[in-house]
Amino acid sequence: MTDQPNTALQYPLLAAPHIQLYGTVDEAMYASFKQQYADAPTEGPLVVSITTLGGDPEMARAMGDSIRLLRDYTGREALFLGKVAVYSAGATFMSAFPVHCRFLTRGTRLMIHERSLTSTVQLSGPLSTLPDILKAKLHEIEHSMRIQDEGFAAIVKGSRLTLDDLKSRATANWYVDAADALDLGLVLDVI
User: Fold this and answer.
1) Are 27 and 60 in contact (CB under 8 A)?
2) pTM of the model
3) Does the structure show a pLDDT above 50 at 1?
């Protein structure tokens, strides 16, 4: 890892995030996010930090949607600060922030991977109903892949990384350190 200049002083707001999230992305984190969001100042940029090894991508998308709605309805800027580990659902949450609003602390790692599914299909009943059971599972998989691709597109939008490149790396749990994320334009800066 190369020594990076200390750029933290250029971003004084990042020193004291309004919303600080850590742990598994789940319903408890979402509840904490909503409470901290409600308690945050209503003026100026909103700073959100996260440290997570991952969790529920739908909870990450829900928190991200709150950030998008804030931006769309008020024009207010929200800044993302990833600390130490921003894995899986954490990267999904990061995708809700435009590249020019994303920051990582030095030494932070992102981990981006494809969604996974473990499922057993039980076929039982009249033969005429069995194709519908299989079609329903196929529709679930196809829809999940579309949601995944939307998230991947949001992660790379505005960066130097192509969607195809991200998709090819994500098949094997792609870990990217903060310096590489900066070089790829996935974040504005590393502090």
Assistant:
1) no
2) 0.90
3) no
